[in-house]
């Protein structure tokens, strides 16, 4: 399917990322995968921290790992490029730099991944679990 809409969020009970469809019910945040499951039989298994929910951007890194809002990207030299952030300019995902580059605080995710780095970027962490990587 083209233009997949899916999310990920951190499940604090099982200490792992969940990927799939996102919804909120009575103030609780849930992510349920494609397999048919009733999330209300064991809600804690599908409950996620709402602050960690990020949407899939439609791009993947060099190793084929999906890039989500909140991911930290690095070049092949291991140097952190920045964190993927939605809504910076209101219409697309940007990569927000840890330090401004030539006066710019961020740039288009697509422009960085595809144009500047030719797809040779790696997801090296995420803002929720690795905030120290952005300094």
UniProtKB/TrEMBL annotation:
<dbReference type="Pfam" id="PF09643">
    <property type="entry name" value="YopX"/>
</dbReference>
<feature type="domain" description="YopX protein">
    <location>
        <begin position="6"/>
        <end position="134"/>
    </location>
</feature>
<protein>
    <recommendedName>
        <fullName>YopX protein domain-containing protein</fullName>
    </recommendedName>
</protein>
<dbReference type="InterPro" id="IPR023385">
    <property type="entry name" value="YopX-like_C"/>
</dbReference>
<dbReference type="InterPro" id="IPR019096">
    <property type="entry name" value="YopX_protein"/>
</dbReference>
């Amino acid at each position: 399917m083209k233009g997949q809409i899916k999310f990920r969020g951190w499940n604090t009970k099982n200490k792992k990322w969940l990927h799939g469809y996102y919804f909120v019910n009575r103030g609780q945040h849930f992510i349920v995968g494609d397999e048919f499951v009733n999330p209300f039989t064991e809600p804690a298994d599908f409950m996620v921290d709402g602050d960690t929910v990020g949407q899939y951007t439609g791009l993947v890194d060099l190793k084929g790992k999906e890039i989500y809002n909140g991911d930290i990207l690095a070049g092949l030299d291991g140097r952190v490029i920045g964190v993927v952030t939605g809504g910076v300019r209101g219409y697309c995902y940007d990569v927000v730099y840890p330090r401004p580059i030539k006066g710019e605080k961020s740039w288009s995710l697509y422009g960085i991944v595809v144009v500047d780095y030719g797809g040779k970027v790696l997801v090296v962490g995420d803002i929720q679990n690795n905030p120290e990587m952005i300094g």
